Task: structure prediction
Amino acid sequence: QNGAVFSKVRGSQSGQDSTRWHVVRKFLSLISSHNIAVYLIDPLILELVDKDIEQIRSSPDAPSPECKYFCAPRDFTTFALLDKTWKHEVGLFRTAEKMGFQWLKIINKDPRLDGMDDLSGIEIPLHYIFKLASHAIHLVVFYERSGNYLWHGPLRLKQHMDRKFVPFRKLHFGRYPGAYEKPELLLVSIDDLKVQIPKNPSSFLEEMSHSRFLECRYREARAFFQLYPDDASLDAVEFRRKAKSLLHLAVLTLNTLGVKFWLSSGTCLGWYRQCNVIPHSKDVDLGVFIRDYKADIIPAFQKAGLPLKHKFGKVEDSLELSFQGEDDVKLDIFFFYEEDDHMWNGGTQAKSGKKFKYLFPKFTLCWTEFVELKVHVPCETLQYVEANYGPDWKVPVKTWDWKSSPSNVQYNGVWPVDEWDDVIQIY
Amino acid sequence: MDEWKPNSTIKPHKKRSWYLAWKYKLMNQRALRKLCQTGAVLFLLVTVIVNIKLILDTRRAAYAEEEESAQDYDDEMLNVEVPRHPVSNKKVLDVEVYSSRSKVYVAVDGTTVLEDEAREQGRGIHVIVLNQATGHVMAKRVFDTYSPHEDEAMVLFLNMVARGRILIFTIKDEGSFHLKDTAKNVLKSLGSQVAPFLSWRDMWTFVGKKGGEVYGEKHAKSPALSTWGDPVLLKTEVHLTSVEDAECHWPDTELNRRRKRFCSKVEGYGSVCSCKDPTPIEFNPDPLKDNKVFNVPVAVIAGNRPNYLYRMLRSLLSAQGVNPQMITVFIDGYYEEPMDVVELFGLSGIQHTPISIKNARVSQHYKASLTATFNLFPDAKFAVVLEEDLDISVDFFSFLSQSIHLLEEDESLYCISAWNDQGYEHTAEDPSLLYRVETMPGLGWVLRKSLYKDELEPKWPTPEKLWDWDMWMRMPEQRKGRECIIPDISRSYHFGIVGLNMNGYFHEAYFKKHKFNTVPNVQLKNVESLRKDAYETEIHRLLGEAEVLDHSKNPCEDSFVPDTEGKVYVMFIRMEQEADFTTWTQLAKCLHIWDLDVRGNHKGLWRLFRKKNHFLVVGVPASPYSSKKPSSVTPIYMEPPAKEEGAVAVPAVAAAEQT
Result:
């Protein structure tokens, strides 16, 4: 057998771990014997693979002269499993045991039903660990969710679980839940093992570095609706429908341009407080870092059927764009400027030329799901919302003055009159 | 941990021992010793309870109206202390059975497993089945044998129970009036000496092993027609067998492990638990070629009718082209037995905390189930919606696979349904024929995701509106003039007799004689002609070909339609405007089809079969097809009977009762 010969060669080399290679090979034969498809997502291996990707792609069947990838001594090798491609057969685990694997299953609540308090009975497997000798395979289960993306859960041990089964802290996946695009896969042969890998390992690794996912706070949202019953009027239903379709269009447009954005202001508050669009907010608000600004944004939205309504400020200062959606629902894009210890965006009063500044503590971006879309929100959402709406953000307010109501607003002078034509454009 | 051992060391079980000793005054020495040993702890417990009571009493004083809930709280506390399962590792079970006019109860080893003292409920013979090795309750049924046919259901049930099980019987109020000889003989064969002589308002309790010994029987005769027999209380002991004796020895496979788990828990499912040659629980029907609905999720909406669910899932999993991975059963409430059924078939099930009441509860359950379905299968463009009391035709998925593209492409469509409201044995003929109808039949249908997500979900009736979800979906605000595609011969069969809006008479009158397709792989005819415009062309072609019937005859008479086969006939009825269904309703009534509301119409046209001829009914002048009426023909007008007014359903059901 090719593998056996190969492993003898491996074993003779110093600093290499043929155990790992053997365990991976056994694992791959286990899952292929049950017709289950997995793909490699181990970041350390993908980094190495990425360096040789051209060569690997061009000669996918070439025998390896040496064990380059699967022999570095590590505690784990990480694979991904798409939930919908397998049937949860118990037989897999029985075979695994016969092959000498010890295995651990980590289950938790199904987040796809989490928004629905009154459903129960479903806990889903989030992670599996197959251990053999000194090496373990970490199998991360990915689920498809509304918004056309893949999700994996956090890895949390329950009381009775063996905390020393493997060194959990060293795992690459599971500290947080994560969101990913559906990857294109490539079948390759590396170290004489046939495995599927993401077609573009470097973009997968880049995606992984900021994949953290925040679940909406469904429990708190329900508590909110207990206190303040949802507006079920036809107007509210209609506004939500328009806001949702406007947001879908905006997301499509910005994603096509490659402009990173997040839910801001009222839209962010709606997500955080009630996991839905606030029916009496009259617009949709997005934030974009000024460094991600592209001149194509305006034509792209116009092409998508959203004419520019107004443009305030300029790229260097307080830029703000507003597009006209269906009926009177508008899309506001606020550009954020980064300082040493805070971020801010600007506001302009058209008739007076007065400038305002809204200050936020620094934040990073996380993925979340909102109205069937995968979108960014500030990870430090509470600070963000509190900065904007003050400590009483939990109480709905129907009259909101963007110039005076926000708790983080600062007066920021007046635009010089000769610049007005440029920085105050209304259509 | 999960098994309670009554004789093991005291500490962890003291509360239960106390409860048993207190309630049943066990004469057993060990129990008495235990009682003493736990005395001190008991004292503490009592103190705690007294304290809680005190707190509750204080609350009660403050909020007099909360009294009942405080009472509930007490009950719950007691319940917690009661061992839920009268458990194994013990050779003898103490069984107590009580029968009386207004109350029955059964206690097994101190646990009340049945207690019914509700007024005007639970009349008849209560039956409980215990596992002979563990003492677990496997089934609990009540057969109102005061009413007709219930004894037949009881016989059916008793025949399903495996040999060796412990059977407990007790009568509440009256259980003999419609208890026929067949049923009495079955009870006799179980060892009852009294059953053959049970009569009006007798009280009776019986405990025996199916196919084995009798553990006890008590009977109190009613002294006179106007009075009841004295209450009887039977106390007896049942000797448990070993677990091995109570189980079947099926080969050890994954399927049989599921079967074993199921069969050791519940009873009354017959051959699925038979030791010799059990009926399969995996069906592997033929796959469908080019199956367009293989990846469409299937939501099965269920309540607490596990026997129905069992029957339904069997037919569903036997349908060609079924994909078990896409099936989710949504159970309205935390019922165990429906979940056991779901697990028996290796499917996934989700329980739903009941919100609201009655129709609104069903409506909220539907909403939660549909939302969950699209969350779980975010890629899906459609969902198939089924209910637990439907048989599914062998070509159900084939029917959908051939027609689903229409729902995707034709925006004038609201749904595809497997059910033809007017498709009775005597009015449906052609399994390859489809119709467009303005009414939504439900009972096995396909929902478009965009319709649900964009239109229905955001404005779904809230719990306080006590609306039927299907009535709401039929309202013009929702339907917006769109139509459903249905088959001439239904691909589902509604077998449920017990239900929220259902009873035996109603079922007999409106559902029993429904035609149900049993032919596999039916190739649907001319599917493209079901598109909006093509359908009009098709209807005009049909009407052009149709022979006008003799309008001087009585349309209710059989002779109204000639004794031919395969011809197309048309009749014209009076229909003053779009919503005038006076004549149609009378016609529907005399044709013995659905007449409770208007179903199956398309622009004032109804299509059905009579004597194997296609039979078209056009409402004149409201229907746009009125132009096809020869000027010599006067549309038939049928007057509603003078009495009929007000509620529509009541007289119709009453009429059915007479037939």
Summary: Confidence is low (pLDDT under 50) at residues 1-14 of chain A. Chain A touches chain B at residues 84, 87, 89-91, 110, 112-113, 115-122, 144-148, 232, 234, 237, 240-241, 372 (CB under 8 Å). Chain A has two domains: 19-211, 218-426.
